[in-house]
Amino acid sequence: MSNTQNASHDPAESNRDDRSADAVTQTTAGESQEETQTEWTDYEFRGEPKLSVDDLDVYYGDERALQGITMDIPENSVTALIGPSGCGKSTFLRCLNRMNDRIKSASVDGSVELEGEEIYQDGLDLVTLRKRVGMVFQSPNPFPKTIRDNISYGPRKHGDIETGLLARLLGDDSGEREEKLVERCLKQAALWEEVSDRLDDNALGLSGGQQQRLCIARCLAVDPEVILMDEPASALDPIATAKIEDLIEELAEEYTVVVVTHNMQQAARISDQTAVFLTGGELVEFDDTDKIFENPESQRVEDYVTGKFG
Amino acid sequence: MSERTLRNQSRDPLAVEYSAALAGLSVVPIATFFAAFVVGGLTLAGQRSLGSTILGIEIETVLTALLFVAGGCLLAISVGSRYGVIETTPDRSAGLGVASGFGFVAFSGIGLAMSQTFGLGRLVWAPLALIGGLTVAGAIVFAREDLGVTVPAGLFSVAIGSLVLFDGLTPAWAWSPAGFGVTFNGTVLIPLLTIVAGLVTAWAAANAFEGFGAAGRQAGAFFLIGANATLILLVLLLLIAFIVKNGFWYAVDGIEIGPGLNFHWPFVMDGYDVVLNQKGIYPAIIGTFWLVVGALVMAVPIGVGAAVFLTEYAEEGRFTSVIDIATNGLWSTPSVVFGLFGYAFLVPRLGNNTSLLAGMIVLGFMLLPLVLITSREAIKSVPDEYRDASAALGVSKWETIKDVTIPSAMPGIVTGIIIGIGRIAGETAPILIVTADNPQRSSAPAIMGSFELTTSPPFIVNEALLSGSSALPYQLYGAITTGVVGDDPGYGWATAFVLLLVVLSFYVIGITTRIYFRKKLQA
């Protein structure tokens, strides 16, 4: 696991090396409880690995929530994380933009690299990390502000947009840029048609599905590279869910999307590759979605995706 | 219950008729309660005497009639329900609570009658009253619920009515218990007992209206809780009405409007000057205004800032719990202790005389804990989802607090400030000690006009801040106790009236602010 930042470091290649090395350690250092784990073959990406996770352990106090997770998340694709409740998939997701830092009892051991750069290094700028790795939460959580302010909140806080009195005195044209940004993000989130005439209304007046798409738009406003979604449709009705699912597939053309879901049909519909977490916080299998659902290596994964337990 | 529902669904004409009878019989005692409450209340408030008439009938007769009507209706319900004429769904028993309540009433009634009317010794009346009370309680426990609720309530009402009707209790009746310096008069007891009996019968009637059982008990409880809530409103209205009645005409006396923009309201716009024959409270109004403003300037930034620190930054632990305890202790510290502290600590350091500034600081200290407690609660109740969302956008904690947390908590913070203003604007003891010099001042502190720039530090001085002032509560205290204004009770009432107006206008400002912030948060 290399935490050093090397100028000539080729993330893709090095990660692949790490990857195979880990496969070896995994086979040799198989603990008794991991005996049932099938050795799923090294997974070949279709794109570059955007995020590379290596031997990641997470503890809540003394309780181990994730056990030695190692996986590479490819660029510009949808990666689904599925598994039963309490299997650690949300915990894993929150490791990817260090939201777990906000939980006092959580401690993380291992390495997560974003394009080859270790995110668990000392002195890492969380602001930059979270701008690059955005997040959408389980229940829609727009701020109690106007729709426009919800979207411009992030850029404004990062100094990309200034519309205050000072900016006006200095002759800044942020107002126009704000309008463009709001329109672009809302269009990307497939919400523009519905709200373009009421941008100054409070966001809490939107329906649940619209609120969730607004949250996605808000996340897009800070130009992330990766978008993490924690069961983004679980609080929504089927129609709103379908809209979110379409949106996720569209977003994957430009962004790397990681989606946690407990809905296996949803994972099968929208994702390019699927990681199956099972109880105890272990990653049991990670492969192309088709393979996971049609012909998984592991018996436990097959039992899970065919509904024998979970 | 199911039987009743089936009957209603099959639209049995008899059942409908009987339930209409039940509704009618049970609505009457509730209506008579309200009538008794209004009439009795007017009598208690001294607006009417028992001998005067309403609609041509003597009030005493009206009250008695109400008691008999309510009691009669309840007894009719009990008979009808007992013999199945009226469809109800009572439980097996009215329960221990009802039984012990009526048992206690019986015990007190029998005991009082035995000991006071018949002059029996305690060895005789106590066992008799106890037996009587236990009998009533036992009868209620073992009777079916419909009887256990309606019969004692009806009998209670009828008994009180009979007492008045047969002159057992007359307006002239008076009782001074030995060794107790209060005299109970018939003029007070008759309306009071009527209202109490009305409350009991109305409760029983509300219970009967839903046909007893669980639904009935719920209706009874709703009635009592609703009566409580109404009572709170009435206490407030009574207080305000009393002060307005006594102070309004004195306060508005001599208002001149015109010609043109000329407007003069002597009581509010003049000082107190014997020579000029002015009896106004302008200096006190301005004093109270500046005290409140100064205290707010002191307390709000510190309180809200401390709340942000404790809630958002400090880790829950010994430190925060010590501060919590200290805050609560500060909040419950008697105001006169704050005043004493100000007098011993602040006054010697601020020119060694009572001053407006010392008053502002002391009132600020008093306001601080309330602002802190309410702001903390308001900030705690901001959903964590907002903080998560903001953090996930890479926004720092302080920016999140500034732009998301505090605006969301603003209505709660403002509520705390409103309550706090109510407290400090009416505070007398600390003002008396640290601010006041002469209660009836002729001129107001000129704070805005007294700011002066100097060439040496501190560069800006304000003489008015460092001199004494009056304030409305203190002025009121002075007018009541010192007799400076002479035999002029209207002056005190009018001061109280204006104090109320000033506090209410601060409330209006606060509530408007809160509505503004709420609007911003809501869709």
Automatic annotation (TrEMBL), chain A:
Record keywords: ATP-binding, Cell membrane, Membrane, Nucleotide-binding, Transport
CDD domains: ABC_PstB_phosphate_transporter (cd03260)
GO biological process assignments: phosphate ion transmembrane transport
SMART domains: AAA
Bilayer-crossing regions: none
Organism: Natrinema versiforme JCM 10478
Gene Ontology molecular functions: ATP binding; ATP hydrolysis activity; phosphate transmembrane transporter activity
Protein name according to UniProt: Phosphate ABC transporter ATP-binding protein
Domain ABC transporter: 51-305
Basic and acidic residues bias spans: 10-21
InterPro entries xrefs: AAA+_ATPase (IPR003593), ABC_transporter-like_ATP-bd (IPR003439), ABC_transporter-like_CS (IPR017871), P-loop_NTPase (IPR027417), PstB-like (IPR005670)
Entry GO terms, CC: membrane
Region (Disordered): 1-42
TrEMBL record, chain B:
Pfam families tied to this protein: BPD_transp_1
Keywords in alphabetical order: Cell membrane, Membrane, Transmembrane, Transmembrane helix, Transport
GO cellular component: plasma membrane
Subcellular location: Cell membrane
GO biological process: phosphate ion transmembrane transport
Name of protein: Phosphate transport system permease protein PstA
Membrane topology recorded in Swiss-Prot or TrEMBL: Multi-pass membrane protein
CDD domains: TM_PBP2
GO molecular function terms listed in the Swiss-Prot or TrEMBL record: phosphate transmembrane transporter activity
Transmembrane segments: 20-42, 62-84, 96-118, 124-143, 155-176, 188-209, 221-244, 281-310, 322-344, 356-373, 491-517
UniProt keyword annotation of Ion transport present: no
Record keyword Transferase present: no
Membership in a protein family: Belongs to the binding-protein-dependent transport system permease family. CysTW subfamily.
Annotated source species: Natrinema versiforme JCM 10478
Domain ABC transmembrane type-1: 285-510
